[in-house]
Every structure is written in structure tokens, then in C-alpha cells.
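Okay, is this right?
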Amino acid sequence: MVSMENHKEDLMELIRLQPLAVLATHNSGHPYGSLVAFAATEDLAYLIFTTTRSTRKYANLSSDPRVAMVIDNRSNHPSDLRFASAVTATGRAEEVPKETSEGLLTIYLNKHPHLKQFVSSPSSALFTIRVEVYYLVTRFQNVVEIHLT
């Protein structure tokens, strides 16, 4: 097990600089990937995203909260094999009740102010992922596993 402190700067930079991630959910053995705008709490213990309640993503999260989120900084050039970084966060997603969402919503909107109208819609749901493990990959083959729980 690797200490988060040894790689916190790398994780924080990757998460801070990237606006989008791929959220992996599943339902009845069928995987599903969704592009989402995300943010993170300062301690990196929670990732935050929003979706509408009418999506397949929402239905999948309602049936099984286990998820993975992939965040990367690739530029779609051959040099990415050597220089791009990616992190996969695994954990459980949970819808945040409106009455307790203010602090998390502030974090999310600080990163994505253009989504204020979307997240304010009654059909939108704010979610957190309580991260259990981060898998940080650098230089194509250097993999570090960071456990939070």
C-alpha cells in the first residue's frame, strides 16, 4: 500500500486541471461509460458529478452504486504513451440530498460555473463517489495504488 502523501501533488494536479472524466457504471452485467464534468473535495476523498434522473447512468447508479472514474491528461499524440498520466478512482456513488448539498455544490460550481443552470434543475441529481482506491498510471507502465479506506 502506498501513502497518498507521496503522490498527492500528482493526483491533485491531474484532478484540478481536467474538467471531464469517464464514469463507468454497469447494470445486469452490462458496462456503461459516460463522460461527466467532475470536481473533487480538497482531501480527494470524494469526487463530485451531476446527472439528470432520466439517464441510463442514473438508472445504473440506482441499481448498483459501485463505480470507477477515469481521469487523464492525454493529448492524443504518440508521446502520450510516455508522458500522459491517468488515474482510475474506484468507490461507491451516492446521490446527495438537496438539503445537505450546499458545500459540495459550491465545490462543483467553482470548477464548472457554466453548469449552474443544469445543476439547479429539479431533474438533476448531485452525486459523490466516496473513493476507496486511486490507481495512478504514469509513464505508461508506472502504476501506483493508493488506498483511502
DSSP finds five helices and seven strands in the chain. Residues 4-147 form a domain with the Pnp Oxidase; Chain A fold (CATH 2.30.110.10). The beta strands are 20-27, 30-40, 46-52, 66-72, 85-95, 124-138, 142-147.
